């Protein structure tokens, strides 16, 4: 059975052939390399440690792209793109407290007896687009799902991290409470930052839609609890 295949068929009908083929590739034993989250034990895609239980292993890069963890090539061509699948997968994302692979795969997406373990280059939630059109307030989307996976944009809670030059924003609590802003979007938002005199490296305020907000930096305590910086 392909990763997440059984649950998707139950909830959303048969998968497109292209997606089914993609999900079935890369099955085999390998050592989990744990980029960004430490090294760990070997695994086999689709292994069944208990009766009627299947386990699969995924990787999320710093652009928010999702791959089978043991895919030899990880780029835009090989990442998952089916919107229905991405909504299903990321809506079930949470911290891994299963007692299995917690150090190497700190996050999991559960579907009944199917466990989909996740490791990441930085953090599993990567905000890729700012949805500012329409009558409502702006929203940040993640998981490649547009409005289907989006949270309110809170400009005052953006947090630049000098250690790695990346930008972060609050994320759903089940997914760790903090997410990475993709580099291209972070570059756009950085033009709104305001710095104190004296050549400070960190901004203190953000000018957003004509209003000046002090940056709260309240996300800092969450990083020690997340797979990331």
UniProtKB/TrEMBL annotation:
UniProt KW keywords: Signal
UniProt-listed InterPro entries: DUF4505
Similarity remark: Belongs to the UPF0598 family.
Pfam family, one: DUF4505
Keyword presence, Nucleus: no
Signal sequence residues: 1-29
Record protein name field: Chromosome 8 open reading frame 82
């Amino acid at each position: 059975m392909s990763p997440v295949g059984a649950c998707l068929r139950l909830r959303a009908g048969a998968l497109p052939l292209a997606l089914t083929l993609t999900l079935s590739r890369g099955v085999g034993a390998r050592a989990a390399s744990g980029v960004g989250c430490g090294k760990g034990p070997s695994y086999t895609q689709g292994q069944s440690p208990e009766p009627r239980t299947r386990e699969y292993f995924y990787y999320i890069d710093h652009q928010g792209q999702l791959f089978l963890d043991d895919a030899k090539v990880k780029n835009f061509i090989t990442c998952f793109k089916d919107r229905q699948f991405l909504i299903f997968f990321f809506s079930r994302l949470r911290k891994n407290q299963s007692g299995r692979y917690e150090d190497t795969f700190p996050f999991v997406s559960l579907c009944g007896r199917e466990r989909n373990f996740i490791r990441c280059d930085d953090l599993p939630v990567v905000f890729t687009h700012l949805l500012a059109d329409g009558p409502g307030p702006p929203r940040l989307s993640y998981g490649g799902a547009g409005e289907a996976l989006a949270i309110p944009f809170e400009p005052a809670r953006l947090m630049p991290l000098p250690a790695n030059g990346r930008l972060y924003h609050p994320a759903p609590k089940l997914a760790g409470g903090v997410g990475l802003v993709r580099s291209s979007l972070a570059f756009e938002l950085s033009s709104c930052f305001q710095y104190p005199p004296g050549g400070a490296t960190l901004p203190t305020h953000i000018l957003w839609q004509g209003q000046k907000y002090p940056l709260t930096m309240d996300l800092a305590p969450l990083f020690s609890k997340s797979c990331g910086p």
